[in-house]
Amino acid sequence: MIQTMHVLWLSTILFVIGTAGVLIRRNAIVMLMSVELMLNAVNLALIGFARQFRDVTGQVYVIFIMTVAAAEVAIGLALFVAVFRHKRTLDTQKIDLLRW
Amino acid sequence: MSLVIFVVFGCVAVGCALAMVFARNPVYGAIALIVCLAALAGEYLLLDAPLLAAFQILVYAGAIMVLYLFVIMLLNVRREEGCRWCTDWRTYLGFVLAGLIGLSFLFKASNVAHPAPPVGFHVYDVTGVAYTMFTDPTLLFIIEALGVLLLMSVVGAIYLGRRFSAEEELLMKHDRPAGSNSTGTAGDAPCGESAP
Predict the structure, then answer these.
(1) Which pTM does this prediction carry?
(2) Cross-strand pairs, A27
C-alpha cells in the first residue's frame, strides 16, 4: 500500500535534483529542462494529496500546471533561439547583457 | 505489490533525472528526461490518476520534449568542454542549497499529522475530472486565464521567432563578439563549428 509520505519523498527527491540542475548547469536548455523536472515533482505531490484526501481538484490543478509548462516551454525556447542568433552561444556565463 | 511497482518506477525516475542533470550532451539529457516523465506517468497510474498519466505521455513526452529535442538539434548545442561543473566550488554550493530545500520540505511534511491512507481504489476518470473542472467557478476562471496565457505565449513566440530587419541585424553584428562572422538569419540553421 502506497502511503502519501512515500509520494512526498519521491516528489522531494525529484524537486531537489531539479533545483540542483538549475543551480549547477550552465547550458540554458538543460536549465529549462530542470525546471520541467521541478514542475513534475510538484505535479506528483498534488496527485498524491488528491489521492489522500479523495478530492479531484488536485488533479485539475495538475492539468493547469501542464498548460502553464507548455506555454513556458514555447516562450523559453523561442527566447533561446533568439539569444542564440544574437550571441552564438547558450552558455549562461556568456549571456551577460543585463548583468552588472 | 503496488508499493514495489511504485519503488521501481521511482528508482527509474530518479536515475533518469540524475542522468539528465549530469549528461554532458544535451540530447542525451533530453532523452533521459523523456524516460523520467514516462516513469512518472506510471506513478500517476498507481496513484489513481489514469487521465493524467495519458496527458503526461501525450503532452510532456510527446509534445514538449520533442520540441526540446528539435531546438537542441536546430541550435546544435555543443557539449560543455571538460568537467568544469564538477570542480567549481559553486557546484557544491548548488548541491548544498538544493539539499537544504529538500530537507526543509521533509521536515515540514513530517511535522504534520498523517491521516490514514485511503483504502481501496477510487479512480478518477475523464468524467470526474471534467465535472469538477467545469462546475467550480474558481476553476472556470482559471481556465479563462489560461486561455489568455496560451494566446499571449503564441503571440510572443511568433514575435520572438520572426526574421530580423536589416538595422536590427546591423546592431547585432556590432554587438556580437569578434570571431563569429556568420550573419545568422532565421533561414540558415546556425552550426556549432562557426562558433568561436
Answers:
(1) 0.84
(2) A91
